[in-house]
Amino acid sequence: MSQEPTLRDILDHAPKRLRFGTSGVRGKVEELTDVEVYCLTRGILEYFQTRGRLTCPGHEGEVAIPLAGDLRPSTERILQAVAKGIADAGLAVDHCGRIPTPALTYYALQRREASFVVTGSHIPADRNGIKPNRCDGEVLKSDEPGIVEAVQRFREQEYGRPAAESPFGPDGMLKPETRPQLPPVDEAAAEVYRRRYREVFAVDALSGWRALFFEYSAVGRDLIPQILRAAGAEVVCAGRSDHFVPLDTEAISDAHLQMLGDLAGRQDRHIDVILSTDGDSDRPLVVAVDGDELHFIPGDLLGAIVAEFLGADAVAVPISANPVLEEWLGAHGIRVRRTRIGSPYVIEAMQELLADGCRRVMAWEANGGFLLGCDVEFGGGVLKALPTRDATLPLLCVLAAAKRHEGGLLGLLEAFPPCYGKSDLIDDFPQAESRRIVEYFTPEDARIKELRFEENGIALFDAEGNRIGFWPQGSPEARSWAAKKRLLESVFRPEDGFAPVVKLNVLDGVRCYFANGEIAHVRPSGNAPQLRIYAFADMRDRAREIAALAVAEPDGLLRRLARRVAAA
């Protein structure tokens, strides 16, 4: 008697297991089939349950998992698959609608419950993602192995289920009769987020500001302007799109600025500042308007302004952030810890700083997404911790800080030592080539994160900047790394204006320091097939030139580096 076919037997495609990046799980929409999303949800919930991270002490009443998403066309379908996973785990769904990722996370933290957000952030619409949160905050890197193991158990179970009994069809999607309808939207999450800021920012905190909020397809395009208005700002909204538009707030081009300037110029009255966020509204965009000139405020400097405004005593920032932060923040008595790129790493660093006795601990990423590691007294109240990227807090704080600064927004920006940053990327860059670059420049000794090329050898340092060794000139290690240094210098050539390489940092990617003070940092995306350049120089035009040289086609610096490494 023949065995009944399983779901795996009838699939019309080869399923692809979903993988974690630096901020949740992301993939192409066709890879995010309902069955994969369902198994991911069930595995995560089981892991949270076994580790005591589904609900935290103090939770009361029924467990209803908060769930929200962004405005991508694929989000509704993926939300339904997550909702089925939650329901089949015996839990209720608290459908919070289309709200910013930090709004959903903050709401779930106050409820002491785990949560899920369906979002691909700023990446193109043909991709999406799922960001799970524990009851006490983001999933950390230490959680991922246990989650992967639990998810795999559910994959084996679902793909091995008899096809006739499976809720999924050959395409991996829920059958029409098994697809759930999402519950009505619960507005409580949006209101809790509004109240977070209303309680600490006075009704006139931003009075005098006339801001243009660029709506496009940012999920916070309704909620965030409401919060800004409640703090006294006059906000004009423009540029709403019915289609999803990917906007990376870390890679704003001249064309983006021209478009924003045109929007501002079409308004009846003068605009002081242009504001927006990325797709899931956890990364801010701030552009100062000075007459006919627009000045983009980089996220890494924006974060420093916010931290000083809030009275931080210690901060965590990724290695990709502007190198002047130590000098500027140190002058304000703020301790700085550098980390790998991604919110899990800065969160872990914030936890370490708190354990070390720091009292007002904060963090941000180079994109400006701001994390508050602990409750802080502010504005006559208490601003509660929100250890996940947030765009709204930096938007509020930078305008409030500029209001009390004699030089306004530009004065805040001009207070930093002259070091200008520019990032850019190549999309659809083969991930195997990106990994090969990183692996080539990864020392065998995992403790080594920085190599400084000195006259008589190479000095070695760990992630905290402690000297841990030295390779004398002529040693096998020094000869090997001298060859790698020469390879870099054959890419970053003198004819393109580059000085010799004097230092390499490999904490996350390959960060090249040149003798003239310039920096070129090459790093693959953790979530998408992208290779990114972070360029720094003491002249704005030079930073832009380095970034442009890096992504130029067909023979820019990044392509050239990949070829040289492959041939080495």
UniProtKB/TrEMBL annotation:
PANTHER family: PHOSPHOGLUCOMUTASE (ALPHA-D-GLUCOSE-1,6-BISPHOSPHATE-DEPENDENT), PHOSPHOHEXOSE MUTASE. PROSITE patterns: PGM_PMM (PS00710). Residues 162-181 are annotated as: Disordered. The keyword Kinase does not apply. Residues 18-153, 213-288, 299-416 form the Alpha-D-phosphohexomutase alpha/beta/alpha domain. Keywords: Isomerase, Magnesium, Metal-binding, Phosphoprotein. The keyword Phosphoprotein applies. GO terms for biological process: carbohydrate metabolic process. SUPFAM superfamilies: Phosphoglucomutase, C-terminal domain, Phosphoglucomutase, first 3 domains. It is an enzyme of class 5 (isomerase). Signal peptide: none annotated. InterPro entries: A-D-PHexomutase_a/b/a-I, A-D-PHexomutase_a/b/a-I/II/III, A-D-PHexomutase_a/b/a-II, A-D-PHexomutase_a/b/a-III, A-D-PHexomutase_C_sf, A-D-PHexomutase_CS, Phosphoglucosamine_mutase. This is Phosphomannomutase.
